Inverse folding.
């Protein structure tokens, strides 16, 4: 877990592909003719055909998502993607096979926390803890709490476990943990452009992964927050916190939970100005991290929003939105899914 975060809690992108700014390339496309490569699909994965799309937030969202502007035309090659977020059951198999210990389970080194009380340097993680009353939305410490003993096995703290949650997305995984699982599984974390192309499911510049209306025909389409954030969640969608994966309808590519449930790690470093100079073909992300809010903390991109997102506070369940996450920190609303490149013929 990032030292700065800890201290806050403890008191201290084929030939013929498009080129940027060409008017003939303004219309997006999906390579529908390329349904999927020859051979069987990897277990639990969906073929994402690749193509061209408009990446980022719309101009009208400038005030809300300035870090996702300008909206720009991008091409990505096809790839395989996990149908769902990685579940506790899947992560358990990884841990059983490798003995891997997540960052939240590891002992803290006093050298990294000068001046801290050694008695407080215990493994743990940040857990969403709703306040008992309505609070201002400019102080996240009102609803996040560092909980010793919280980790992927104990998502709410040491007294909690995974009973009834094996089909829920694994949480409390930092970027390092997600990358380790992906490597073990013979996969990788998605590039940010890949993630957004997949999330849009073939739709062109729609505000949601299912279309232009947040709650079509009165149906909830994602696990998000209802009620007054952060104190009162009415759980009208059926879930107070995480939901079993694939609890809601899939998008146009057959992917579940590309909005809400848990934030998903991407491979890219985070910079709020990256879209100003990003490549138009298979963008790989910037070569370093910078977040003006925490200049000394290395961060990667997170996508998709979580069960805590709502219009009044976050709304980053929109496919064009993005968010920075400290690479060594997880939380009770953070998970991931993987992608796999086409096996060379």
């Amino acid at each position: 877990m990032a030292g700065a975060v800890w201290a806050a809690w403890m008191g201290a992108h084929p030939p013929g592909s498009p080129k940027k700014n060409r008017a003939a390339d303004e219309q997006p496309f999906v390579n529908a003719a390329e349904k999927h490569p020859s051979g069987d699909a990897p277990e639990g994965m969906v073929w994402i055909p690749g193509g061209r799309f408009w990446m980022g937030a719309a101009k009208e969202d400038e005030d809300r998502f300035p870090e996702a502007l300008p909206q720009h035309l991008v091409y990505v090659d096809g790839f395989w993607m996990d149908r769902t977020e990685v579940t506790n059951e899947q992560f358990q198999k990884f841990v059983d096979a490798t003995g891997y210990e997540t960052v939240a389970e590891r002992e803290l080194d006093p050298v990294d926390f000068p001046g801290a009380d050694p008695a407080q340097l215990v493994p743990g993680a940040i857990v969403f803890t709703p306040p008992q009353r309505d609070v201002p939305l400019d102080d996240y410490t009102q609803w996040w709490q560092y909980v010793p003993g919280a980790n992927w096995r104990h998502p709410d703290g040491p007294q909690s476990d995974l009973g009834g949650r094996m089909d829920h997305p694994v949480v409390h995984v930092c970027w390092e943990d997600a990358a380790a699982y992906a490597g073990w599984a013979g996969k990788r974390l998605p590039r940010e452009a890949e993630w957004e192309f997949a999330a849009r499911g073939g739709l062109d510049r729609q505000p949601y992964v299912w279309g232009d209306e947040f709650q079509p025909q009165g149906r909830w389409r994602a696990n998000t927050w209802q009620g007054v954030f952060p104190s009162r969640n009415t759980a009208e969608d059926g879930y107070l916190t995480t939901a079993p994966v694939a609890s809601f309808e899939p998008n146009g590519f057959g992917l579940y939970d590309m909005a809400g449930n848990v934030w998903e790690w991407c491979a890219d470093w985070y910079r709020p100005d990256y879209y100003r100079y990003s490549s138009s073909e298979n963008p790989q992300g910037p070569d370093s991290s910078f977040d003006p809010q925490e200049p000394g903390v290395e961060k990667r991109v997170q996508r998709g929003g979580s069960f805590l997102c709502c219009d009044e506070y976050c709304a980053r369940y929109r496919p064009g939105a993005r968010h920075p996450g400290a690479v060594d920190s997880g939380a009770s609303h953070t998970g991931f899914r993987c992608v796999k490149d086409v096996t060379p013929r």
